[in-house]
Specification:
alpha+beta, 4-stranded mixed sheet, two-stranded antiparallel sheet, 28% helix
């Protein structure tokens, strides 16, 4: 028997990749479409960012756009206190902004 996720996220799979939620899979497919259209050059999944205290924050997507811009996207249905704390830490330590998408 599989335990239900606390926030009702349903694990799923696409292209042989396992996703934490249907929403994350949706964004993966959206980025693939934007890549085929030429708006996105490429994107990386589950990008690790080191934090003090031997902890790591994993950003869902790091996107490189064809116009030279770059974005860090994190797919969130609900922003937990732990996520908010780690997001602030990352943004304080590094010159990046993490965009929360639904």
């Amino acid at each position: 028997m599989r335990l239900k996720h606390k926030y009702h996220a349903q694990r799923c799979e696409d292209d042989g990749i396992k996703f934490a939620s249907k929403r994350e899979k949706y964004w993966y497919n959206l980025l693939k479409i934007q890549q085929k259209a030429g708006d996105v050059l490429f994107f990386l999944r589950q990008v690790p960012i080191d934090l003090p205290g031997h902890t790591t924050y994993r950003c869902d997507f790091m996107v490189f756009y064809s116009n030279g811009e770059m974005a860090f996207l994190d797919v969130k249905g609900m922003q937990t206190p732990m996520f908010i704390m780690k997001k602030k830490q990352v943004e304080d330590l590094y010159p990046i902004t993490i965009e929360c998408v639904k």
